[in-house]
Structures are given as structure tokens and as C-alpha cells.
């Protein structure tokens, strides 16, 4: 019986010694932070922030702003346009139109037109003073066509 007890005790010791196989290895220590050159840090602090470029009217083209002669302010034409059309000269571009409150004038913004072109109300729509740009009302409720 003593031999049996000694055998069981030896087996238990062996099993206990082998049971530590589930341990995960210790994680690598965190890398040391990079050394910062004092001169480089000072230079970074002293550099002024980059100012966005403004146009002649103080508008920020990088923010989508353009000058509206009719409203006499910078506008984001994409957000406030009363009429949006596909540009007949290039179907990948758009033409945007702002109407005056009294609907007697329209300002047209297109890639191939200078700034905003002011059109005056005429029969069937709007036209520029020189007649080169016309915005005409179609048969549908919101149907407009532009000729440049």
C-alpha cells in the first residue's frame, strides 16, 4: 500500500509540474517614446497656422464660397441655388442660378461664365443685357433651360 501511495504522490507531483503550459508569455515592454529635438519642437510652436486663400471679395473658394453680385456677399452656391441645371457645354458640370426675391433678376454661375452673370426678367424667363445668356422656363413646373 505504501508503494501505491508513493506512486500516486509521484504522479500527482508530475501532473502539477506539467499543468503550467497554458501561461502566455509576458508582453513586450512598450517602446520608448522617440526623442524630441528641442529646436524642432520650438520651430513647430513658432510656425503660424496656414491661412486659407481668399479671393478679391474675401470669399474662401476652398470652402465652396463665391461672390454673389446680386446678394453682395459670399455664398455657397451649391447650398442656396434656386435652380440647378446640367451645363449644356459639359454634362459633367452644373449651372447654378439664384433668383432675386422679387424674381426680376437671376444670377447665373457656370464654369465658362465670368463670376456671376446677372440676367433680367423677360418674356418666358431671363436674359443677359447682351442677349448671349438666356434662361428659359420649360413646360414642366421646375423645368428650365439655359443657352450660353
Automatic annotation (TrEMBL):
It comes from the Bacteria. Residues 35-50 have a biased composition (Low complexity). PROSITE patterns: PROKAR_LIPOPROTEIN (PS51257). Residues 127-148 have a biased composition (Basic and acidic residues). Keywords: Signal. Residues 24-63, 123-148 are annotated as: Disordered. Residues 1-23 form the signal peptide. This is Lipoprotein.
Amino acid at each position: 500500500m505504501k508503494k501505491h501511495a508513493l506512486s500516486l504522490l509521484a504522479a500527482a507531483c508530475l501532473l502539477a509540474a506539467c499543468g503550467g503550459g497554458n501561461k502566455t508569455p509576458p508582453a513586450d515592454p512598450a517602446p520608448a517614446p522617440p526623442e524630441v529635438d528641442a529646436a524642432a519642437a520650438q520651430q513647430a510652436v513658432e510656425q503660424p497656422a496656414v491661412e486659407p486663400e481668399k479671393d478679391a471679395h474675401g470669399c474662401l473658394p476652398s470652402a465652396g464660397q463665391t461672390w454673389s453680385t446680386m446678394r453682395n456677399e459670399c455664398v455657397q452656391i451649391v447650398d442656396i441655388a434656386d435652380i440647378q441645371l446640367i451645363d449644356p457645354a459639359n454634362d459633367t458640370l452644373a449651372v447654378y442660378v439664384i433668383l432675386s426675391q422679387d424674381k426680376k433678376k437671376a444670377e447665373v454661375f457656370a464654369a465658362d461664365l465670368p463670376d456671376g452673370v446677372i440676367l433680367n426678367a423677360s418674356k418666358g424667363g431671363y436674359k443677359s443685357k447682351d442677349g448671349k445668356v438666356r434662361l428659359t422656363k420649360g413646360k414642366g413646373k421646375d423645368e428650365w433651360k439655359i443657352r450660353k
